[in-house]
Amino acid sequence: xxxxxxxxxxxxxxxxxxxxxxxxxxxxxxxxxxxxxxxxxxxxxxxxxxxxxxxxxxxxxxxxxxxxxxxxxxxxxxxxxxxxxxxxxxxxxxxxxxxxxxxxxxxxxxxxxxxxxxxxxxxxxxxxxxxxxxxxxxxxxxxxxxxxxxxxxxxxxxxxxxxxxxxxxxxxxxxxxxxxxxxxxxxxxxxxxxxxxxxxxxxxxxxxxxxxxxxxxxxxxxxxxxxxxxxxxxxxxxxxxxxxxxxxxxxxxxxxxxxxx
Length: 261
Known about the structure:
Elements: E1 8-9, H1 10-17, H2 21-29, E2 37-38, E3 44-46, H3 48-62, H4 67-76, H5 80-113, H6 133-140, H7 142-153, H8 157-180, H9 187-201, H10 215-228, H11 230-233, H12 244-260
Antiparallel strand pairs: 1-3, 2-3
């Protein structure tokens, strides 16, 4: 019997899919997942097409759709492959979001065990940032939170992704520069410092973004914090470990601030 003709019993499918025979029978009774065949003993069997349909049903359930809405979606979409491509795109987005959440939670656990405070610059990563409202207001004031909240909520999904990518790119480029052996006052390092300051001035609620704010003092102070606070310095840790990467960023930012701010 070839793969296309293979069928699985309702008990097998329930076990494989992590559901129950009762659920599968209910799906069949309402026309959502008909059995491909029924044995003389009344047992239901499911072929490959049924498995694909069940996979889609479970994915749509995970999206929060009810059974009537799922039936409507399945009825509209003729191509199973095309529909699964859409599911796959969503799953990859969720995978990325969950991976960032895992990293954030791990960082939080480390901070809590060390009696440290959370790192505000990473507060948005993978989470609804409103849960850090008190943290931001305590550190930067209520207006800082209100400004950043309004800014973040006003961004499109693509804009948020681009912003997060900008942060990631900066960290990667700082580490590469520090490991390359170039000087903090080199053209290459100063170009990254310029990008870093541009990033800081684009975040509402920080002193760097406030009209008339002490941008120079903020940039220099932040550079010192990267070295003094291991949670910040971890973003610029080189393969050698220690604070060398953070010290490189601090020195480059100071040179840039003295020359341009």
